[in-house]
Amino acid sequence: MQKQSEEAILKKIKQREIFTATIDSDAFTLKIEKYEPAFSAAIHNGGNLRSELVDNCLLSQAERYYEEDPFTGSFIEQQPITLIAHDSRYEYDLNRHINDCVYETAWGKEIWKKPLTEEAILLSKEKHAQFYRIVSALVEALTEDFGQCIVYDNHSYNYRRHERDDLPVFNLGTTSVKSTSWRPVIETWLNSLQNIVIEGVHTTAAENDVFYGKGRLAGHCHSLYDNVLVLATETKKVFMNELTGEADGLVLSSLQKAYNQAVKNNTLDYIKKLT
What is the arithmetic mean of pLDDT over 80-93? Predict the structure, then answer.
């Protein structure tokens, strides 16, 4: 995989180049096969942790993996524009504001043997800031070219910790969306989710049921750009054993294929209506 500096990636976006590049810190990979008014992100797909942080971390890799979103990058890998993160949310959480992106505790657990140094915290925060500079450059390029764009913000969630047994397979969070003009686009994507067919799984979809779309990618875009809609979509971990981390090969393969096709079809419908 070709590595590029932030400056080089920003230049390629500005010049509307077709490319695939991993940022030189290995934090994320951006792929652009063609420019269209939509891109897909999986910001918690990865589990990498800097070596100095691994040595200081109280949690095992398996414990960290439990709260991450493995395989979500594969749900969107066939899309023309993808932004897939490789770092663990325990290094810095891209779904939180930069002021709160480095954990001291998380989900009731202490994270560090010794408090992080200011230098370590600043390095993590800079990687967070760098990611969002790339996001801004990308959405600004797409909105300049097409007038508006949508962002598929893909996550997964643990469900065994909940008391309910009727949790949706897909949850679409929309509470940070400011304009009602996006309502038809939201309804179309929600309908697409409801109609995804997964081998061995009864598909259900709901809006603002378990999660409400208050994560940082949605907050960043919705606060800065009126012409950008983030579709914050959570997938129930029906494709894996959330406790052991073992994937269900049949369900995962079916979900990967169906989800990629759903995003593709939904984007084509969005572009058709936009033009």
Answer: 98
- Each domain of the chain, given as residue ranges in start order, spans 3-274
Write the pLDDT tens digit of every residue in 196-231. 999 999 999 999 999 999 999 999 999 999 999 999
**Token pair in block for residue 31:** 């792929």
Give the amino acid at 162.
Answer: H
pLDDT 10s digits, 2-27? 899 999 999 999 999 999 999 999 99
Cβ-contact 157, 234 below 8 angstroms: yes
Q: Does domain 3-274 bear CATH number 3.50.50.60?
A: no
pTM tops 0.85, yes or no: yes
